[in-house]
Specification:
This protein is mainly β. It has helices at about 1-15, 155; strands at about 25, 30, 35, 45-50, 60-65, 65, 70, 75-85, 90-100, 105-110, 115, 120-125, 130-140, 145-150, 155-160, 165-170, 180-190, 195, 205-210, 215-225, 225-235, 240-245, 255, 265-270, 275-285, 290-299.
């Protein structure tokens, strides 16, 4: 009963319409081979259901104690009944619901790519009616740094128009400066797998930059109303230097340097008379930032 409640809860959260919440078995093949055993070694075995609807009961095996013969099923839910008749004509019945899902999940999109900072949000989008598990595989395989993370379907995934989106945040600080490769494995309830191995998966690549830019030195000199700025920066993935005057009536971030010359940002800005509280923001391409400040007054 607990398992049934869990399945129903997953359906409600994910918006998934499963073939059946009460499937006795899941299979990815339309050829189903039940293992039927009788206490009488001279029994006849029958089934009802499947794709053969011509007769109410179809004979599987005759005058044996065990029967293993294929039954043809349709895609989706198959409600089957089995009947075992012993040598004295006594019948024994059983019922089961076998669900067929012969289609693999289809992964349509994975993120991230390019350059990212240490705390990374991975994302996968896929199409699948009956998801069972989603696993993230990541690492630097040239250095044998391989890891995996099983994503919680209930807590980390959503679905819109049959397209699932799953996200997982991972701290990748230990991979700082390295290139990462990753892929997702999506498995359904019938055992179909998308991305079973890296060779068959939709691979993604990115470089980790978990380090903030380093402000080695900074100097500010006020000449009249002009503030002369020189900031020495160490950053291999430099993006820009911006500034904001927190004393402005409406503080607004403004661009100062979009490139470094010999590792330095040099510029001059004209200030209005009065008090100023300026914050300089150094940003790299991964989104890491370092700050410096100049509080002063222009007479």
């Amino acid at each position: 009963m607990k398992n049934l409640i869990l399945v129903l809860l997953m359906m409600a959260v994910l918006g998934v319409s499963l073939v059946s919440a009460e499937c006795t078995e899941w299979t990815n093949s339309r050829q189903y081979n039940p293992n039927l055993v009788a206490s009488d070694g001279h029994s006849n075995f029958y089934y009802s259901g499947g794709t053969d609807t011509r007769n109410p009961w179809v004979l599987l095996c005759k005058n044996v104690g065990e029967c293993t013969k294929n039954i043809n099923l349709k895609e989706g839910e198959n409600n089957l009944q089995t009947k075992i008749v012993d040598s004295l004509g006594n019948p024994e019945y059983d019922e089961l619901s076998v669900c067929v899902d012969s289609k693999k999940p289809v992964i349509t999109k994975t993120l991230p790519s390019g350059l990212t900072k240490g705390n990374v949000e991975f994302e996968v989008q896929f199409v699948e009616e009956n998801p069972e598990s989603v696993t993230l595989h990541y690492g630097n395989y040239l250095e044998d740094l391989e890891k995996e993370l099983v994503i919680d379907l209930l807590a980390s995934c959503s679905v819109v128009n049959k397209k699932h989106t799953c996200r997982a945040s991972v701290d990748l600080s230990e991979f700082d400066g390295r290139e990462i490769s990753y892929w997702f494995t999506v498995e359904d309830k019938a055992g179909n797998i998308a991305g079973e191995t890296s060779a068959k998966a939709k691979l993604g690549y990115f470089t980790v930059d978990a380090s903030v830019p380093v402000i080695e030195d900074s100097s500010y000199s006020l000449v009249g109303r002009s503030l002369n700025i020189a900031i020495e920066i160490t950053e291999s993935n430099f993006k820009r230097v911006s500034y904001i005057d927190n004393a402005d009536r409406i503080p607004r971030l403004k661009s100062l340097c979009s490139r470094l010359v010999n590792g330095r940002c040099t510029a001059s800005i004209v200030l209005s008379k009065g008090d100023h509280d300026i914050t300089f923001v150094v940003e790299d391409k991964a989104g890491n930032v370092a700050t410096d400040s100049w509080p002063g007054r222009v007479s």
